Amino acid sequence: MTTDLFLSNVGFFVMGLMALAGALIAVSQQNLLRAALGLILAFLGVAGIYFMLEAEFVGVVQILIYVGAISVLILFAVMLTRGLMRGAGSGHNSQWIGAAFVSLLLFLILSAVALFAHWNVTATKVTTDLVPKIGVDLLTTYLLPFEAISLLLLAALVGAIVIARE
Amino acid sequence: MDILNNLFPNLYDWLAGALHALLAGLNLVKDAENAIVATIMALVVVVVLLLWLVLMVLAMIWFERKTAARVQDRVGPNRVGPWGLLQPIADTIKMLIKEDIIPTNADRLVHTLAPIVTAAPAVLAFAVIPWGKGMFPVDLNIGLLWIVAIGSIGTIGIFMAGYGSNNKFSLLGGMRAVAQMVSYEVPQVLTIVVIALLAGSLSLNKIVDAQGGMGGFGWYILAFPVGPIAFVIYYISALAEVNRTPFDLPEGESEIVAGHHTEYSGLKWGMFYVGEYFNFFLVCCVAVTLFLGGWQGPILPPYVWFIVKVYALVLLGMWIRMTWPRFRVDHLMAFAWKVLVPIALVNIILASLFVTYALPALKQMGLF
Amino acid sequence: MLDRYGIVALFALVALLFPPIGLFMSWLVRPKKPNKSKLSTYECGLEFEDFPEEAQQVWVQFRVQYYIYALIFVVFDVEVVFLYPWAVAYNSLGIFALVEMVIFLAILVVALVYAWRKNQLKWV
């Protein structure tokens, strides 16, 4: 195994473990704010995985939007719930057997897809700057989704303001 | 002159060559040998950069206290070493030996992690800044966005500090600080879009290279009318991002005790304090790279030009701090959303028109 | 390209190790003498432990205003993320790209004006 491949594998495992650890903290902590912080760790892990896939623009946008903006939104929303300081009670309810079964099933299905699908693997490395290409594609091939996104953002903002004013 | 200009890249090459010679005796695979040399050189660069940054921050702390003193018609620190130059070191030792008090019922883990989450991103963002010709730790294709993204991680640290202290003032101060930083991030990123338009790239190296026209004076701040507007908006929102006066409502002593770092003592508070200076230095470095041409300039070596320009902006920031009163919180928010964001949006449209119509003409005239 | 991010990862490692090492050095040399009044939270001259149980729950009068600011920030952040590729690719696109972007920005200006008119940008 070449040095390159070895380091790539190391990087992937480290980032994957970070995402996994963050997710575990997010679901197991009873203190809501600590759970939100675990979620932030998971976001950082996913950003790391994007970088390993040489999708650097997506990775940096993940950090900018998810860790920078959405995490702040989630933290503010957590502060809305007064139950924060008192803890959330016991960690599970009576339906945990069904939930565990469904989770196991989902895990088996996803692993089967990941392991046995025919993924299109290219051997070339990405060396050029991808951002201009993304820009060109966004404004020519994917123009309609691009404009639709602005309408989506407008709708989201208007909806949130209407709900928040009540 | 060329030796002086390329001093640091030459040192780097010499060290890498020495390491290769050292490892040649071990007869490793070419791949592994290159990887080891690259890792050691990267470590050297990181450590040197870190020491340099600490030195810069200590110098800034001394500089601020002296200029504040002179502006207020007094002398400032002059006991500890000549002209008080050792004062920051004395402050650091004082912070190291202070007792660390964590309040009861505070979330200890969050309380301890908060200074780390606030201070670490500031250091990480320095990785992409070109300090001189050929002197950059890493040249990322998306360097500009990297700085913005890493800077936005610091917001989480301030929120953690506010929550983890189990104190009403801290929580309120923390939330206000986060709201302020978040509001001023929008004009900041909007003005950086203008730079991406003018340079056609997000890589900081290419942006600095593109400002080399006019004998090293083809800076983007001179691109009327979009350059100065973008610079002013960027500098104002950046000052607000790092919570410096006149935007330091979250930490003004008369307003909210000390805001999110009320309950911090010793080195943890020191990290917030130093972290603020790190951020301020980072913001000035970024402004110099984007608007003032980075290391471009005639005669003097590039790295000297860079430091001179950065300290000019640092002086400007300190001057503003010593002269203007603090903003009220509702004025703060209204200013960001109702004044800066519309101007920044209009500026983007103007800049795109500038690039299409004016820039080719200016290039033909030999400018830019 | 990945080797650049290797250096960045090294940077991140050192940046993350730097504060804990400092804290460790401080832990070695600082005194540890906690007592009740030192450990109480700052409350402008009153004793936090003397408050009744309800008053010891630390919370702030939460205003939805904070959430609205964060939400508007998310919307504008996503908008800016779309502005960057357009800005970088601007030179290789025609004038039509400018028109498309103006439409995009105009829709989001409508969003900002809506928030403004509904007084959501006011700090109450």
What does this structure look like?
The complex is a heterotrimer of chains A (166), B (368) and C (124). With 166 residues, chain A is mainly α. Helices cover 75% and strands 0% of the residues of chain A. Chain A has two domains: 1-84, Four Helix Bundle (Hemerythrin (Met), subunit A) (Up-down Bundle); 128-166. The mean pLDDT of chain A is 86. Chain B folds into two domains: 8-97, no CATH class; 107-364, no CATH class. The longest helix of chain B is centred in the N-terminal third of the chain and has 42 residues, at 30-71. Chain B is built from 14 helices and no strands. Chain C has four helices and no strands. The longest helix of chain C has 28 residues, at 2-29. Chain C starts with a helix and ends in a 7-residue tail after the last helix. The model of chain C has no long low-confidence stretch (mean pLDDT 80). Chains in contact: A-B, A-C, B-C.
Per-chain topology:
The complex is a heterotrimer of chains A (166), B (368) and C (124).
Chain A: H1 3-28, H2 32-52, H3 56-80, H4 96-116, H5 131-139, H6 143-164
Helix pairs in contact in A: 1-2, 2-3
Chain B: H1 2-5, H2 7-24, H3 30-71, H4 87-96, H5 108-125, H6 143-164, H7 168-199, H8 204-209, H9 213-216, H10 226-241, H11 253-256, H12 266-291, H13 302-323, H14 329-364
Chain C: H1 2-29, H2 36-39, H3 64-88, H4 95-117
- Encode the helix/strand succession of chain B as letters: HHHHHHHHHHHHHH
Number of helices of chain C: 4
The topology string of helices and strands of chain C comes to HHHH
Unreliable runs of chain C: none
Main sheet properties of chain C: none
In angstroms, what separates the terminal alpha carbons of chain C?
48 Å
Q: Work out the count of structural domains of chain B.
A: 2
**Mean pLDDT rating of chain B:** 84
Residue-averaged pLDDT of chain C, rounded? 80
Round the Cα radius of gyration of chain C to an integer and report it. Answer: 26 Å
Unreliable stretches covering 5 or more consecutive residues of chain B: none
- Secondary structure class of chain C reads mainly alpha
Proportion of helical residues of chain C = 55-70%
Beta strand % of chain C:
under 5%
Count the helices of chain B. How many? 14
Give the percentage of residues in beta strands of chain B: under 5%
